[in-house]
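User: Some background: our group keeps a shared notebook of sequences we're curious about, and every so often someone picks one and asks for a predicted structure to add to the entry. Today it's my turn. The entry only has the sequence so far, pasted here. Could you supply the structure so I can complete it?
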Amino acid sequence: MFDYSKLIGRIVEKFKTQNAFAKAMKMSANTWSNKINGRIDFKTGEILRAIELLGLAVVDIPDYFFTQRV
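Assistant: Of course. Here's the predicted structure to add to the notebook entry:
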């Protein structure tokens, strides 16, 4: 399971709510919830779209999407 707390913090910083970010990602709030809670995996294209929307670089992907929960 991955720790998405850093990702969620960046989303709130840039979009104010996770629902607003989900809309920008062109996915439903339910789909977003399933992804962020580990029930559905992120697809490569979704990760690339997310970092673009969040103003991040490709080198930031591991920190935001692949940090192991301890």
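Suggested note for the entry: Helices lie at 5-15, 18-24, 29-36, 44-53, 61-65. The radius of gyration is 11 Å.
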